[in-house]
Write a structure and sequence with these properties.
This protein folds into 2 domains: 368 residues, TIM Barrel (Alpha-Beta Barrel), CATH 3.20.20.80; 75 residues, Immunoglobulin-like. The chain contains 16 helices and 17 strands. The protein is α/β, with parallel strands linked by helices and 534 residues long. It has an 8-stranded parallel beta sheet with strand order 9-8-7-3-2-1-11-10. A 6-stranded antiparallel beta sheet has the order 12-13-14-17-15-16. Strands 4-6-5 form a 3-stranded antiparallel beta sheet, with no helix packed on it. The longest helix has 16 residues. The chain is globular. Helix 6 runs parallel beside helix 7 and helix 12 runs parallel beside helix 15. The protein starts with 6 loop residues before the first helix and ends in a 5-residue tail after the last strand. The chain binds 1-deoxynojirimycin. The site of 1-deoxynojirimycin has 9 residues, from loops.
Length: 534
Amino acid sequence: MGQKYLWWQRGVIYQIYPRSFQDSNGDGVGDLPGIVERLDYLEWLGVDAVWLSPIYPSPMADFGYDISNYTDVDPLFGTLADFDHLIEEVHRRGMKLLLDFVPNHTSDQHPWFAESRSSRDSSKRNWYIWREPKSDGGEPNNWLSNFGGSAWQFDERTGQYYYHAFLKEQPDLNWRNPEVQDAMLNVLRFWLDRGVDGFRVDVIWHIVKDDQFRNNDPDPNYQPQWAPHRKLLATYNTDRPEVHDIIGRMRAVLDEYDERMMVGEIYLPVERLVTYYGTENSGVNLPFNFQLIETPWHARAIGDAVNRYEALLPAHGWPNWVLGNHDNSRMISRIGKEQARIAAMLLLTLRGTPTLYYGDEIGMHNVPIPPDRVQDPFEKNVPGLGHGRDPERTPMQWNAEPNAGFTSVSAWLPIADDVESTNVVAARKDPNSLLALYRRLIELRRREPALEVGNFVSIPAEGDLLVFRREVANARAFVIALNFGASAAKFSNENLSGKVALSTCLNRENQIIDRAIELRPQEGIIVELRDRMT
Ligand code: NOJ
């Protein structure tokens, strides 16, 4: 293994949604001291890095993705001193900490926006995107907000519209303005100087818009179940070529420090996604790859997606895989309980950095939210269509107590009704739990260089089977065989001999494999090869 791999290439990232991880002060909302209380759990699980969704001062119109001060902590979550303590405790355990950097928009309560909207002559007018009304007073163009309706908000006082890709309480910054760039790069430095190991960058493909503000065309493939903004192709308000120069500037700041990184949130077709790797040292270290969320859960479709992604990656591009996050339906609610074990094995044996969403490791599912408890502004703006994100943001289920060990009072979102059976304490006692499987997979991955950094080699298979090999020079090689189907399946190959290193079913370890694997329904197996398979 001559090559040196960096921590974010070898490691497993774990996403915490801070409002829902652990409440320490009895207000029903999670906080930073609460996260510190639970770090031993994360260390036990074996993850390498923790990414926190936003913790900065915010009016919480979009639960922290509307930031009113980039260089402080919201009192709901704690103080800067709490943050310093958290980072110290994370590092003491040999883990890394990633923050959420939200460069596309601020809160409308940010002092920059207050100044910008105060007059057309404001020194910060050009920090946001202001445009004249059309001659009939209408919006400057047809761009739509991701959270419903027009993306333009008329400002009575100054008689112009401002652009907001999300809520009207989240005005977009004007990244074509070098002053904005400098101010935001200083935000990165502020946190890097405090010791953070990197950033997850919110909607990074959004930050530059068309300089001519051209109208978007309708998407001829639009489906009514999609979010309304997808009626239009986002040609002119996202993924503009100039974004890559800005990313290059962000990357240069990170590279002023030792082994810091950024992972970019990007929902784009794979051939566009991979352009965000930039050229060597200019791009995002990891453009989030959401294909395991978006691809139909069938062996063939997933296999094709993996092969295509591997083929499209640039030579310097390190892959990554994501199973869930705070914007998408819970993994188990998408693919079902049985396949959750296959998904875990896939995530942790594919080549590339895996990102886990809190609670997925114990099998938390979407929690139905009664109408009077809806919190998510997306659901409030576009109700009843299933776009709401509260179901996947409910409190972590630590134990079987009434508030799930998350809080001592009523939590900000309802707690799942299966908390008695689905919780960390119960799962830690059960050697067959999903949590136990995650832990063993992470441990195996860390122990075996082929699984951590080895090559990916697709092996042809049929029907519900997905089969591939991981290998690296001078280390054991493995074949991973996953049965996506509900029937038993057999995979034969002349060169396949070794023993079972890990199965999603109990009591198969060390079984000898001699030229064929008999997979039970919905079973995944990792075979340690006796010889390298050709
Ligand atoms: C993406 C975030 O993940 C999502 O939660 C948020 O609502 C939007 N960006 C706007 O910041």
